Amino acid sequence: MTALMLSNVNKSFGNVHVLKDITLEVEEGEFVVFVGPSGCGKSTLLRVIAGLEDASSGEINIGGQQVNLVPPSKRGIAMVFQSYALYPHLSVRGNMTLALKQEKQSKAMIEERVSIASRMLNLEPYLDRYPSELSGGQRQRVAIGRAIVRKPKLFLFDEPLSNLDAALRMNTRIEIANLHRALDASMIYVTHDQTEAMTLADKIVVLRDGRVEQIGSPMELYNNPANQFVAGFLGSPSMNFLPEGLLGDGGQNTIGIRPEDLFLADDGPLAARVSHVEKLGGDTNVIAKVHDQSVTARLFGQHAISEGQELRFTYAAEKAYRFDADGQRLR
Amino acid sequence: MNKARQNPFNTAAMHGALILYTLIALFPVFVILINSFKTRRAIFREPLALPSADSFSLIGYETVMKQGDFFLYFQNSMIVTVASLFFVLLFGAMAAYALSEYQFRGNLLMGLYLALGIMIPIRIGTVAILEMMVATGLVNTLWALILVYTAQGLPLAVFILSEFMRQVSDDLKNAGRIDGLSEYTIFFRLVLPLVRPAMATVAVFNMIPIWNDLWFPLILAPAEETKTLTLGSQVFIGQFVTDWNAVLSALSMAILPVLVLYVIFSRQLIRGITSGAVK
Ligand SMILES: Nc1ncnc2c1ncn2[C@@H]1O[C@H](COP(=O)(O)OP(=O)(O)O)[C@@H](O)[C@H]1O
Ligand SMILES: [Mg+2]
């Protein structure tokens, strides 16, 4: 069964068309990441799925039931917000139990769910604290706990890590991945960070300007991007794009080469002048100018390269992608 | 952390300025209070002197107690002020929430219409209001005053509160909706507590003019049993002779409840600012 099915969902605010013909499916137990630059409509899409905004047109199915007219609390979803959105007047326990109390669940059952969730998230010592007495990472866990106790059919995460510092972000990312395995629940996760998308997702949905650009597993998208946008968005450092003319083919198309697919070669076709070197120990990132185009090469290991040096690069033709003037992939 | 705070000279200067301001603000109250305890002659001879054994007198308070039904006036003023504030805050907050939270046709126009009242003094409509009150039989009831003051306070309340409510996090309200809270619960339990400082501001702004108003009590509710304190005190101010002892005593007593209300509201204000609300 599919956990979520969107068909031709559109959303406009006045005459601003924010979501355009979104069609996608989330399978039961799948971890799906919506990724795209800021302002592309990810949060709006999530709010439409949650029922916090009405879709202007199109159909939304959750767990096989059409929910266009069902209020958020009855859709079988739980949401974790970027700003945590904990209730300031309730303790951690109160925050976690509110929804169950609204559903008039039995005391024993509420107690059991809270104790399971708080054990999972190491929240036991904080159950009687108030949100203002917690650190950012703890608040984040309470927000996740508030979602878990409801046992929703579908979890919705809206950029849950963006308010955490880098070290905590990494840990929480792993925790969320573990949580997904432990709960075996369907999850939708929104982020603008391609690393989070690549590391967490079973399936990635790339969005741009309210449109779905491509859907697929992380490696499918990485190895086989449908267009220049997807190719450039996934991967870090991102793909190099060079006009075909520079490579001596004379066409009007664009050639895309991933940084790890560029190699040093004395007789290579790309003559470059090094403008910056990042020595990471395991890798060396060389940023160089080919004519006026900036190119990044990711060389394995350590290299004695310095700024201003003249180098030549080569690449394997089968690893190069070709895009037409509209950014569509040519095969 | 903050260097300016720790510098003793700056601290002294800051406290000096605040103390000076407090003295200036409290001076008229102080003069009224001391003079209310003096004989009429002493009031005019040395208005700034403290009451001494010679000049001490409770004659003003005695007159006030004997004349008319002072406690009833007091009670009337209190009922009118508290009820008006209650309705201004309740309806003002609800209207502000509707305007800031829900998108509906005419939202902007409605907001402008409600804000228009800030610029148009309600007294311009006195005649029409009086006719309406006569027609509905509300003349000489406290309801007449409560309704008028509620109408008078609403525009500013809606204007200020809707500005503050726009700043309440959408995520918080949405979390409530997902957890199955009704819109009323979201409004009363999540949003109102977060705009409490703004509510206190609105309350303080509205309270003083209502408490002090003479115009509408005189026109809409001049009957003995509905007189407010301000109107009741007017008997001591004559065209030719003014009983200053009584006026000052009445004023002194009138200050007290306002002071109490003010302390209540301002504590809310400070608590709201310092509670470190989680956004
Ligand atoms: N309530 C709203 N009214 C009008 N425009 C909105 C509203 N919510 C979002 N938008 C617009 O929709 C676009 C997408 O917003 P959003 O979904 O928040 O993007 P993302 O989460 O991908 O950064 C933005 O251009 C934003 O200005
Ligand atoms: Mg967003």
Search tags:
heterodimer, A: 331 residues, alpha+beta, Rossmann fold, OB fold (Dihydrolipoamide Acetyltransferase, E2P), 2 domains, 6-stranded mixed sheet, 5-stranded antiparallel sheet, 8 helices, 19 strands, 34% strand, B: 279 residues, mainly alpha, MetI-like fold, 14 helices, globular, binds adenosine-5'-diphosphate, binds magnesium ion
The radius of gyration computed from the alpha-carbon positions of chain A, rounded to a whole number of angstroms, is: 23 Å
What percentage of residues of chain A falls in helices of 4 or more residues?
25-40%
**What is the number of helices of chain B?**
14
- Can you give the mean pLDDT of chain A? 93
% residues in beta strands of chain A: 25-35%
SS content category of chain B: mainly alpha
Spell out the helices and strands of chain B N to C: HHHHHHHHHHHHHH
What does this entry look like structurally?
The complex is a heterodimer of chains A (331) and B (279). By secondary structure, chain A is α+β, with helices and mostly antiparallel strands. Chain A has two domains: 2-232, 3-Layer(aba) Sandwich (Rossmann fold), CATH 3.40.50.300; 237-330, OB fold (Dihydrolipoamide Acetyltransferase, E2P), CATH 2.40.50. Chain A has helices at residues 42-50, 92-102, 107-120, 136-148, 166-183, 194-200, 218-223, 228-233, and strands spanning 2-13, 16-27, 31-35, 57-62, 65-66, 77-80, 154-158, 186-191, 203-208, 211-216, 240-243, 254-257, 262-264, 270-279, 283-290, 293-300, 310-315, 321-323, 329-330. A six-stranded mixed β-sheet of chain A has the order 6-7-8-3-9-10, sandwiched between helices. In chain A, α5 links the parallel β7 (154-158) and β8 (186-191). In chain A, α2 (92-102) packs across α3, α2 packs parallel to α4 (136-148) and α3 (107-120) crosses α4. Chain B has 279 residues and is mainly α. Chain B folds into two domains: 3-63, no CATH class; 69-239, MetI-like fold (Orthogonal Bundle). In chain B, α4 (59-66) crosses α14 (244-274) and α8 packs antiparallel against α11 (196-212). The longest helix of chain B has 32 residues, at 70-101. Chain B starts with a helix and ends in a 5-residue tail after the last helix. Chains A and B meet through β6 and α2 of A and α9 and α10 of B. Bound molecules: adenosine-5'-diphosphate and magnesium ion (MG). Magnesium ion (MG) binds at residues 42-43, 159 of chain A. Chain B: InterPro entries: MetI-like (IPR000515), MetI-like_sf (IPR035906). Chain B: It is a multi-pass membrane protein.
